[in-house]
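Before the break, one more example. Copy the sequence into your notebook; we will annotate it together after we see the structure.
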Amino acid sequence: MPDVAAIILAAGLSRRMGKRNKLLLPVGGVPMIRHVVSTYLAVVDGPVVVVTGHEADLVEASLDGCDVEIAHNATFADGQQTSVACGLRAVPQAGRILIGLGDQPTLTKRDLQDLLDAQKAAETSRISIPLLNEQRGNPILVPGTLRDRLLADPRSPGCKTFTRVHPEHVQFHALPSPGFYADIDTPDAYRALTADPSEEAE
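Here is what the structure looks like once it is written out:
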């Protein structure tokens, strides 16, 4: 069984970006979602599951040749929690599961490794969440043993409700890298990203 698998959420409607699907916008010469997927593939030793929904055919085409598994969420319009649940059902068994967002292109391999290391140095049986000035970040890191618990409530599957109702299963790590807290979901955010030479950071 691999130590770390990953779920990357790439199903949203991208409404705040206007007519463009943010995940297909170029970052470093490739679509944003491909850029993000490549970061995860460089770190994890298990499967990477990409959850698609809105414009699934285009998102999947942008990942052609990437070593990923696709899980299509037919109910993606009902909210992000449905995509988290879809990914949790699809991801193969692993010791730990990263659950991340497809619109975080400034997240680096070092950031992901820092989160993995922080959990190992703390309680590996708890969900690990980056935190900076009371702001929660992404991805989060879920012990594989908690996967079924996250799917147990059909009214609110996934992580958001679970982590708030069961704080005993959660730990926060003071991780200052901005990659954990920045998503690109508006035209202004995208313009700022593409104007910043550090977008290629490793």
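DSSP finds seven helices and ten strands in the chain. The radius of gyration is 16 Å. Try to locate both features in your own notes.
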